[in-house]
Amino acid sequence: LVETEVRRRFRAAYARHFTAAPASEVSERACWRSVVDDVFQPCGQASPALFESLWEHFGRGKHWRVYDDVAPVWRALVGAGFRVCIASNFDARLVAVCRELTPLDRAAAVFCSTQAGYSKPRRGFFEHVQTRLHAAAAELLLVGDDRRRDYDAALDAGWNALHLAREGGASYPASR
Predict the structure, then answer these.
(1) Which contiguous run of DSSP H or E holds residue 54?
(2) Are the C-beta atoms of residues 154 and 144 closer than 8 Å to each other?
(3) Please, are residues 162 and 174 in contact by the beta-carbon 8 Å criterion?
(4) Helix (H) or strand (E) holding 112
(5) How many CB atoms neighbour CB 106 within 10 A?
(6) Quick check: 166 and 67 in contact, CB under 8 A?
(7) What pTM was estimated for this model as a whole?
(8) CB atoms inside a 10 Å sphere around CB 169
(9) Per residue in 48-65, pLDDT tens?
(10) Cα end-to-end distance, the chain, whole Å
């Protein structure tokens, strides 16, 4: 498969299998297995070894990149006294990924939907984070790139929110 075809098949498979983020490690892994099977279906079903290799590959920080603007903003927030955490619909591999990426390695906490038992935009995810941080909803700000799962859901949970559009879409300001 050529790269453009793999990207096209990946986007389609991801949209098909991740209509809602899984809320357990078992369901997360099953969704990703289905994505890999769909992407490589023209070559025959993906082998268990291929899936395991990809699962491990994307569980390492060296295979991810942090946007260039993250480090200076992170430093400014920490310098101003804010506690910066990560709240994601990624699975538990995110903890290891963050440990390998600066400045994510300095997060005060990393919250994964599969560990919380709820995924964004479900209110339970936000309640889990809020409880673990011992914070009132109005004290929390979620900066996220998904309008519905991050921005709208955080506002619905009583948090402040900032929608960050990376791909030229519209950004929405923090509220409250």
Answers:
(1) helix 48-57
(2) yes
(3) yes
(4) strand 110-112
(5) 12
(6) yes
(7) 0.86
(8) 11
(9) 898 999 999 999 999 999
(10) 48
